[in-house]
Amino acid sequence: MKVCRGCRQDLTENLNHVNAGAIAATIPSLWVIYFVSLKEMRSRESVSKVATGASRGVNPECWLCGILKINFRKLGRETNFTDLDFLNDEMSHKFIDQGWRHVQCPVEWESGTEALMDRAEFWMTFRACLSKLPARVADVFMMREMEEMEAAQICQAFRISQNNLWVMLHRARMALRECMELNWFENKP
Amino acid sequence: MGIVDKSSSAENPSPIAGRNWFERMLVSFIEEHTPKCREVVRLLSRSMEVKLPLATRIKIRFHYLICVWCYRYGKQLRALRRFASSLPEHADECGQETLPYSSKERIRQALREKQNK
Predict the structure, then answer these.
(1) ipTM at complex level
(2) How far apart are CA B88 and CA A113, in angstroms?
């Protein structure tokens, strides 16, 4: 995608709100863009930005390219249903297109987990696994699961977004589950 | 899942494992209409935080029918939550403090900053 420099600069400016619908109606190609962008990124913003750009006499295509590029970058950062960031993460080798890799799928943990909880070795393993997590991820996980704090409180304390928190918790759980499976449930000390 | 191919169907303990024509059709139908395993795993983690929309919960249920591993994964996440919440009670059994000192200090600091705000 080509983005001309002028557009990028314009985009960073504050855009005045204009009646996007009225302008869009006059330019048919914008309607196509509207539906595409609605579906692709669920944001009406880009359309109103296109419209403002058009009203200022900037080439709409060029304007749109800039917006698309910026929005895609935003999409990559945020964690949507299937964000690329996650797919590239360290655990994705466990999956193939049709599901789990057979050698790496979760094994059945033994049913009597209550009995486990009386064993000191078990807690030592669990703690060792916790300490292997990256510090920040471990902090978030412990605040959520041990202190049972509200998600909103943790977000505030660590200054992270809610999506960010979910991803961190997800990674913590994935890593912890893996670690417990390898070090306890598969080869018990 | 990979259930459709015959070599792996023996290993799959799911209720519907694609053993005959009808089951194979059913499996591929469910496979098409439910999220992929890597998404299910992610959604399961999210479901521990917020209540998922009904449609998603139903989809996950259907996914369980053909994929016992995701079901296990969900069960194990709940077990992890139980372990983590009872870790403080068992702190003495570890022979050490529950949390490493540094992370305790960091958490405390984060909380303090929040209160000062």
Answers:
(1) 0.74
(2) 17
Residue B67: inside a domain, yes or no?
A: yes
CA distance B47 to B50: 5
Cβ contact B80–A87 (<8 Å): no
Q: What tens digit of pLDDT does each residue of A127-166 get?
A: 888 888 888 888 888 888 887 788 888 888 888 888 888 8
B100, A131: Cβ pair inside 8 Å? yes
pLDDT tens digits, residue range B60-96? 999 998 888 899 999 999 988 988 888 877 766 655 5
Kindly state whether residues A108 and A134 are assigned to the same domain: yes
- Are residues A25 and A93 located together in one domain of the fold? no
How many pairs of residues across A and B have Cβ atoms under 8 Å apart?
127
CB–CB of B49 and A92 under 8 A? no
The domain of A90 spans 84-186
Total number of domains constituting chain A = 2
Helix/strand/coil (H/E/C) assignment for every residue in chain B: CCCCCHHHHCCCCCCCCCCCHHHHHHHHHHHHHCCCHHHHHHHHHHHCCCCCCHHHHHHHHHHHHHCHHHHHHHHHHHHHHHHHHHCHHHHHHHCCCCCCHHHHHHHHHHHHHHHHC
A positions 94-153 inside 8 Å of B (CB): 95-100, 102, 105-109, 113, 117, 120, 123-124, 126-127, 131, 135, 138-139, 141-148, 151, 153
Looking at the structure, tell me whether residues B50 and B96 fall in a common domain.
no
